[in-house]
Amino acid sequence: MDFVFDNNIPIYIQLLEYLKIYLISGTFKAGDKLPSVREFANIFKVNPNTMQKALGELEDMKLIYTERTNGKYVTEDEELIKKLKDDYAITLAKSYFQGMKRIGLGKAESIKYLKELGD
To answer: Are 78 and 30 in contact (CB under 8 A)?
Structure first.
């Protein structure tokens, strides 16, 4: 899988976003053991230090934790993951509605398009 990084945004921030999506989408489930820093770095084709920085941010957010000799794991706090998912969904929805507003469509019309696409 090839990941395309935006040169205007620090790579560790972009990695952080990819990893958050993996967590909220269920690609990595609560309690799952994560690949090592080196494995992740190879997957994303980034420097291990950059990968470590992104994982450190996830750890600061309590989304993952480290067991000293066993590696890194996804939090078992499913409420925290659900909150992250809800927050992300709201961000995406706001972005969608702002984009629709820019082209002159209100919420009702915008929702109509969502319903059509959702069927």
So the answer is: yes
Question: What is the model's pTM?
Answer: 0.81
Instruction: Give the right CATH number for 11-76 from 1.10.10.10, 3.30.1490.20, 3.30.870.10, 2.30.110.10.
Output: 1.10.10.10
Mean of pLDDT values over 8-13: 95
DSSP 74: E
Distance, CA of 119 to chain centre: 26
Q: What is the pLDDT of residues 63-74, one digit of tens each?
A: 999 998 899 999
- Least Cα distance to 88 among 52, 63, 59 occurs for 63
- Quote the DSSP letter at residue 36: P
